[in-house]
Amino acid sequence: MARAWHLTSRPTGMPTADNFALKELAQAELGDRMVQVKNSYLSVDPYMRGRMNDVKSYVPPFQIDAPMEGGAVGEVIESRDPAFAVGDQVMHMLGWRDEAVAAGTSLNKIPALGVEPREFLGMLGLTGATAYFGLLEAASAKAGDTLFVSAAAGAVGSAVVQIAKAKGMTVIGSAGGAEKCDYVRSLGADQVIDYKAGPLVKSLGKAAPDGIDVYFDNVGGDHLDAAFAHAKQNARFAICGMIDVYNAAEPQAFRYIMRVISMRIRVQGFIYTDYLPRMGEFYRDMGGWIASGAVKSRDTVVDGLERTPEAFLGLFSGANTGKMLVKL
Amino acid sequence: MARAWHLTSRPTGMPTADNFALKELAQAELGDRMVQVKNSYLSVDPYMRGRMNDVKSYVPPFQIDAPMEGGAVGEVIESRDPAFAVGDQVMHMLGWRDEAVAAGTSLNKIPALGVEPREFLGMLGLTGATAYFGLLEAASAKAGDTLFVSAAAGAVGSAVVQIAKAKGMTVIGSAGGAEKCDYVRSLGADQVIDYKAGPLVKSLGKAAPDGIDVYFDNVGGDHLDAAFAHAKQNARFAICGMIDVYNAAEPQAFRYIMRVISMRIRVQGFIYTDYLPRMGEFYRDMGGWIASGAVKSRDTVVDGLERTPEAFLGLFSGANTGKMLVKL
């Protein structure tokens, strides 16, 4: 019997394990054009926190007492859609469960790029595409720019660091704690800030005495404020995520936001799905960088469906280095 | 003997009359290429508050115990620069004083557009150019857009309302109090919000049930937060001024800033001087609108050099409708 994590109550502030329950799924008859998939890896991502609120956003909210959803890869074990054969590796959005039954139209066959399927939950999936299009399109970053990226040891951040180096930028990454900072350094960052070691505005000023051209924001809050404080004229900010804000009950306070005017800063929010028509470009560039070793992926893997909420909650306490995955 | 207002101390928070003193200026010998001007109108503008802080910005800070500066128009009364004759009407940046002695190269003859010289401190000066380039360039506003503009009864705001209507936009303006709201309505705004009458987030939601495409920000703070709350997808914000913030000791707090991501909002800071090479376009369009009556200017005029600080301080208590000027 397939099992799936259900959202049993909406969190206020930081979610807890009590917001979720693992329940058996009623076995659906495999209808025409339907496919059954045995999942091998599940993705947990910060954006899922937003879907737990009952507000209209770019994706609809999760429903109470319904199964959670999210990125997953797996193998087809039964198919009534002629486009899929038993044994095919697919990616889809019916994660948080061990087996999924879905219309063939909602599955994507994994492209034959010679990499592990789970990469399509990371560097070749939402994570990598978010880094790629956010950096190069939303922030118009280019060779020679000085880039600041927050959560640089995280899934998206570590991709941003490596793409920026491959493109010839000077990279300043922030992370929390010595171990993560070492990891960011190992990715090629020119300077690394341990945000737990002192006030960010000071550390960033020291790391970038001439200011920053580009800020890739994964966290909001103090990091965003420090970027306002040290932006050069005509700086561009790509706002990708605000992990500091997702669980915050209090409004975010900014001391340096007025520099948006004096420095003519451009702040651009974005979502990678806006660039889906251009995934070909992304697969070509990112596939090339992975093949050449210019971009390396590192995952934090949690074992077992039972631990999916734990993996998700770990995103907010900094438990992951690189992409956080659940292995089934 | 010429007199000028001097900055005698740097304000912390809201400036007061005690920060300024009116002093006689030592009579300088009129050197070669120098011009003496008798000022007729002085401009006071919110940006001057920023120059009172001792911080590097897009204009250098005012110096303590030195004369204040600012936009002014006047008549040449003596000239040792062959480019200027006695009787010429000129605009320049040596305001806050009754007479100015300046190098001819720092004066601009007022173009012969058949309008009052004082218009070049308003609709045809910094004020109008800020509205024009901010709206049409920084915010990329176009016909059919729904625009929200704060401080719509102010100098820049009232210009924005009229330019937007001339360009075929739907305009929602905010102002404080019934009298100012009536004025904004008289400029052609489709809807007017009295921000003193209730919470902005609610009022803006009512005025723009489908959301806003463009926000022209003159105030920051709660207005900016309300604009985040009601932005449509791909909304563009031009950040022109943050009058709520200039004197604030506390950081600005935002409850809806995360919508930058979900709505892919673009926030663009700007300063009109970036567009100086394009003033020809501006004179052509704005001159035409003034001639046709599509754009009307209204000033708040305070009489007498002695009252210059009072006029300046009035900008922060909402004493002005339209451009605030001092008449000498």
List the helices and strands and how they pair.
Two copies of one chain form a homodimer.
Chain A: E1 3-7, E2 20-24, E3 34-43, H1 47-51, E4 72-79, E5 89-92, E6 99-103, E7 108-109, H2 126-138, E8 146-149, H3 155-166, E9 170-175, H4 178-186, E10 191-194, H5 200-207, E11 212-217, H6 221-230, E12 231-239, H7 243-246, E13 252-254, H8 259-262, E14 266-269, H9 279-292, E15 299-303, H10 308-314, E16 323-327
Parallel strand pairs in A: 8-9, 8-11, 9-10, 11-12, 12-14, 15-16
Antiparallel strand pairs in A: 1-2, 3-4, 3-6, 3-16, 4-5, 5-7
> How confident overall, as mean pLDDT of chain A?
93
CATH H-tier superfamily of the largest domain in chain A: Medium-chain alcohol dehydrogenases, catalytic domain
As for the CATH topology of the largest domain in chain A, it is: Quinone Oxidoreductase, Chain A, domain 1
Q: Count the domains of chain A.
A: 2
Kindly state the percentage of residues in helix of chain A. Answer: 25-40%
Give the ordered list of helices and strands of chain A.
Answer: EEEHEEEEHEHEHEHEHEHEHEHEHE
Shape of chain A: globular
Low-confidence stretches of chain A: none
For the record, the CATH class of the largest domain in chain A is: Alpha Beta
Distance between the termini of chain A: 15 Å
Strand count, sense and barrel status of the largest sheet of chain A are: 7 strands, mixed
